Amino acid sequence: MIRYLLFLVLFVFFIFEGTVFQIFASDMFGTPYIFVPRWVFAIIIFAGIYRGRATGTMYAVILGVIYDVIFMSILGVYAFGMGLITYLLSISIPFFQRNIPIIVITCMIAIATLDYYIYGMMLLLGLTSIIHEEFLYTRFIPSILINFAFVCIAAYPLKKMFQYIKRKKEEAETV
After folding, report:
1. pTM of structure
2. What is the mean pLDDT of each successive set of 10 residues along the chain, which is 175 residues long?
3. Are the C-beta atoms of residues 40 and 21 closer than 8 Å to each other?
4. Looking at residue 44, what is its pLDDT?
5. Helix 53-71 and helix 77-89: axis angle, to 10°?
6. How far apart are alpha carbons 10 and 4 in whole angstroms?
7. Shortest CA distance to 140 belongs to which of 164, 163, 118, 121?
8. Cα–Cα dist 126/87, whole Å
9. According to the 3-state scheme, what is the secondary structure of 41-96?
10. How far apart are CA 72 and CA 166, in angstroms?
11. 39-51 and 5-23 are packed helices; what angle lies between their axes, rounded to 10 degrees?
């Protein structure tokens, strides 16, 4: 069961993320701001830091393909972006694993990079006509704020979850 805990957590947050996006949709409250939660991606970055670069990148590519199928009209945009960013930012050294503020900053850099990458690809492929200033003020900044709040709240429980997974895996290997 412990082997599938991370996938189960990612799946639950994937469903929850889509629900939250619908609740905070801009047309719901008449606000021009769009809040895009990237909680699954933040958990993937945590997985990359605590479980290793290969694990994080594998989950990033798999869930990126799912994002592409559900949210994009072109396959590969999320899969490539999430995979590459996770590969680059999965710094799995003890210094990073002990410092939650460093992990929060790393997650926020990853989320900001992914948001700009997606915007750039959509602009390049002609799928959006939103100018940069509008993207920055109506989508990027509100999304960064909601994701920062999530990462700050979830950082400690995620750290404990990954320590639990590691401990259970080590116990299973010694038996």
Report:
1. 0.92
2. 86 89 66 88 96 95 95 91 96 87 96 97 92 95 95 96 91 82
3. no
4. 97
5. 160
6. 10
7. 118
8. 27
9. HHHHHHHHHHHCHHHHHHHHHHHHHHHHHHHCCCCCHHHHHHHHHHHHHCCCCHHH
10. 35
11. 160
Give one DSSP letter per residue of 126-151, joined into a string: TS----HHHHIIIIIHHHHHHHHHHH
Which residue, among 24, 13, 14, 23, has the nearest Cα to 139 in the 3D structure? 24
Whole-angstrom CA distances from 139 to 16, 82, 122 are 19, 19, 14
For residue 57, give the amino acid letter: T
Instruction: Give me the pLDDT at residue 95, please.
Output: 84
Q: How far apart (Å, rounded) are the C-alpha atoms in residues 35 and 32?
A: 10
For residue 92, the model assigns a pLDDT of: 81
Cβ 107 vs Cβ 146: under 8 Å: no
Q: What integer pLDDT is reported at residue 28 of this predicted model?
A: 61
Total Cβ atoms within 10 A of residue 4:
9
